[in-house]
Amino acid sequence: MEKEELLKRMEEAVKAYDEEEARRLAEEAIRMGVDPVEALEQGLAKGLREVGDRFGRSEAFITELIAAAQAMEAGAEILNREIERRGAAREAVGRFLIGTVEGDIHSIGKNIVATMLKAAGFEVIDIGVDVPTQTFVEKVKELKPDILGLSALMTTTMVKQREVIEALKEAGLRDQVKIIIGGAPVTPDWAREIGADAVGLDAASAVETSLRLIGVK
Amino acid sequence: MTGRLRLLTEDQIEEIHSATLEILQEPGIAVENPEALRLLREAGCEVEGETVRIDEELVDECLKRAPSVIDIYTRDGEKRMPVGGDNIYFSPASTALYFIDHETGEIRKARAQDLVNLVRVADALDSIEMLSTAAVPSDVPQEIADLYRLYIVLRNSVKPIITGAFSKQGLIDMIEMLSAVVGGPEELRRRPIAFFDCCPRSPLTWGDLSTQNLLDCAERMVPVEIDPAPNIGVSSPVTLAGTLVQMNAELLSGYVISQLKRAGAPVVYGSVPFVFDMRYGTNRIGAVEAMMVACAGAELGKHYGLPTHTVAVSDSKVVDAQSLMETAMGLTLMTLVRVNNISGPGMLMFDNCQSLEKLVIDAEACRMLLRLLRGLRVDEEALAVDVIRRVGHGGHFLGEKHTLLHHLEEVWMPSDVICRLSLDAWRKEGMKTILDRARERVDEILKAHQPKPLSKEAEEALEERLRAILKRYGIPHPGGG
Description:
With 217 residues, chain A is an alpha/beta fold.
């Protein structure tokens, strides 16, 4: 199999939501000696970007987007190990730190945004759910992300988004990072009120907005 | 199938049936048509002037002759729709003199172009499986208005048609138009594409025109819907059971007349009851009692093993909450009873005003009901034990193949007429109401939808037939259509 065909098949596997095929092709890529970064970028991630675009145009359902994301993650896990082994860094468009705020254990929205960001070329560090405000501050200080994404799915926990922003100000870190907030109850008005830089109303627009925040788009 | 609504018990149906037989004996039925009177006399009925007494034996015999399922076809013959059993087909109600102007919202007399638009919109709506000659165009000569409605429908949709004639000759002309389109009278008998509504005059009278229409259809095996339209409290007893007895007598006598003309003539057991409003003197079809009588009437029809027809429309003058509440309630009740032909989508103002916007909104209600009718699937795949185990505690199902595979068949997807946006997205879109959305959907359909055209031969045959009819009346072709 030629490299071009392999990349095309990887893209198709993600578009067909086929995790096993994505895994198999990732292993095949390594066996063939294909650059794992290229296999990720031009194969798996390309497929997810396409499904993401279709979702953004209301032409795909959430369940399809998530299934595609899972297929990409399945193959990406194998490719990432190879990238690490080779010590070959993937050229990222930016570093993105993401987590769900304290008291909120919802992960679906955050995970899908994280995967979409990876597909768009971001280096994504996902610090999980129910993340204490202080942890966000420490991680921003330690990892120096370009963007911090704060997810909250409940009206009762979205106040924590404000708390994180206030804590970053106190720690003198607010100017060093762009902040994007997301989650079902979150609105542009809320983002303005708490001093976030942007709001991601859905996965597709979150990626779009993030690229704009770091000046790529 | 589960999820069936019954308003009457078997015992109550028997009581209504035997009361009906008493009425058919005394005072009997008035029949204002010589041919029908002759047929009834020859069948052994006691006929005195125009009053006919019909006995139980003849009723039973005639009910046995009537088919329990009527196969109706699309104009192109490609789809067969068996009207009977638990099958349900939605159609626009008929016949309105008024129309809500799509551009201005004004209530005015209906025009030919309105009917063209209505037919094209209904043709595009998947849940509206039959059409009707839904409005009387005020801008064509009234002596040909009935057949001109049919001409418009035949040109703009393949769907089967519920129609009716305004005169004896009108019916013959309309049947000839149908024959022209399908390729001759024999072909029309083999695969009928339209029902003709024949309405007895409550109380207890078969007028000359309706009776002749009934006989002429029976002779040609053209399907009929008998639709008594009593005005409860005025032309039928104020008690709902009394109305049912009288309606049933009108219907059963109609079956006797048609089956005596030709055994096996296809006839639907229908009803369009109204409730007289004692304050305003209006005839309310959106009243819950009108729906109850229609539903119970259909239960009687089912009891006799006959195909059924009812109408669910609103009394409201505009597309507002009342109009949607009344129609949706009627449609739902009638669906749960499993009435076979349910007319109504689009109609307002006591069954006398059409709205294109209402038609597309009601069509969404019909789509919801078609989903409801599919019921709950309960089998190994649907019970999803494996999937529940795999996802486990606190996981989610969005990424499961099971979800991907089944979400569209399990969870109905509405058109954009129904708003499911978040508050923000809705505000951003311009805070559109269902009426705004319906207007856009109508514009979209009128702009983009291309109904399947008549074949060249069918079109020529139809035009030739229409020219001959118009020539007889000395009327120029009104054009359009």
